[in-house]
Design goal:
The chain is an all-alpha fold. It has 19 helices and 2 strands.
């Protein structure tokens, strides 16, 4: 028996956030015995080896010749492929891949979180939402995240699990538990991004500040857009909300080089078109749909990697490979789907509207 088996057990135990006591309880022995193995004082009984391998979800051969570097590389391959699948909106492929990954590494919490994320995100279309409900994807995601909170000690992974649970619990009448978990998270002022802004100096600090500007721009505009759907607001007040969101982008991107945020402006202009039609201003509806179309096309035609040029964010760049989405449609296709809504009925006979739809479909 390889004397280094104790080192392998210790490395596996640390990596999987398992205490000596927990492993000892599983094996039905004292934690002192495990301590002796890890310190090279003694070796585990040969009859315990299969049970130890089963606990760590590795083969017996791996237990004796555990190549940590190869294992990390394989996990990284799974993560990169999952990112690629989500980048093109292949959520079925993402879910299938993460299930395969967890069969190979059942106690890897980063992979566990990856599967939970994909399950939670499988709702971009009516068909996906129906399938998700039929197969209990949200419930499965909740169970995975609860397991992470119970067993994982990595703060970043735990926070990712909390995020999913906060989004999911209210759908199952667990709003109070969601609030309890949300209150465990740090506030914006002590977020990683804000703290790094104060730690860095020189060019690093400028870049962090600019990245924070983009993040807060995204937060504020998204909140204003969501607010525009409030039932207690008049149509005019809803328009005011969306105009405010648009103006934020106009201030930051005064040079119109919006890159990724073209998809955000597409949503904003589409919402303004909807509200304009709702108050009977059909000409404005056409005007805003043209602007929505323009931004959808800009987003769909973005290069792989491009830098922003506005003074406020010129140290930041857009990288297409970093994009994560849960649908396969282009931005133009998404906009076309919105134009089929009944709110645009007043435009159906207008030549300009028909031309917009035809261009979006082409």
């Amino acid at each position: 028996m390889n004397i280094k088996i104790g080192e392998v057990i210790k490395r596996l135990r640390k990596k999987q956030d398992v205490t000596q006591e927990k492993l000892a309880e599983y094996l039905g022995i004292s934690y002192q015995a495990i301590s002796k193995w890890e310190n090279g004082v003694a070796l585990p009984d040969i009859t315990l080896v299969p049970t130890i391998a089963n606990f760590f979800d590795v083969s017996i051969d791996e237990l004796f010749t555990q190549d940590e570097q190869n294992k990390d590389e394989k996990i990284k391959e799974y993560e990169n492929e999952n990112k690629r699948l989500r980048n093109i909106g292949d959520m079925k492929g993402s879910i299938q891949l993460m299930r395969e990954a967890l069969k190979e590494y059942p106690k890897n919490y980063q992979l566990t979180l990856g599967l939970a994320n994909s399950l939670r995100s499988y709702n971009a279309t009516d068909e996906q939402e129906k399938e998700s409900k039929e197969k209990g994807y949200i419930e499965e995601a909740i169970a995975l995240c609860e397991r992470i909170l119970e067993d994982c000690t990595n703060d970043e992974i735990r926070q990712g699990a909390i995020q999913i649970l906060c989004y999911s619990y209210p759908e199952f009448d667990k709003k109070e538990r969601a609030i309890e978990l949300a209150n465990l998270m740090p506030n914006l002022c002590i977020s990683k991004e804000k703290l790094l802004e104060h730690i860095y100096s020189g060019d690093d600090r400028i870049k962090q500040i600019q990245e924070n500007i983009l993040s807060f721009l995204n937060f504020m505009s998204s909140n204003l857009l969501t607010f525009s759907y409030g039932k207690n607001l008049s149509l005019e007040e809803k328009i005011q909300c969306v105009e405010a969101a648009k103006n934020l982008y106009n201030v930051i991107f005064y040079d119109d080089n919006t890159l990724f945020y073209s998809c955000r402006l597409r949503r904003i202009y589409c919402r303004l078109a909807e509200l304009s039609c709702a108050i009977g201003k059909c000409d404005n509806g056409i005007k805003y749909l043209k602007l929505a179309e323009e931004n959808a096309k800009k987003f769909d035609n973005l290069k792989e990697s491009t830098k922003y040029t506005s003074l406020f964010v010129n140290q930041c760049s857009y990288n297409k490979s970093d994009l994560i989405k849960n649908f396969e449609s282009t931005d133009s296709e998404l906009l076309y789907e919105r134009t089929t809504n009944s709110v645009f009925a007043c435009l159906h006979e207008k030549k300009e509207f028909i031309e917009i739809q035809n261009r979006l479909k082409s």
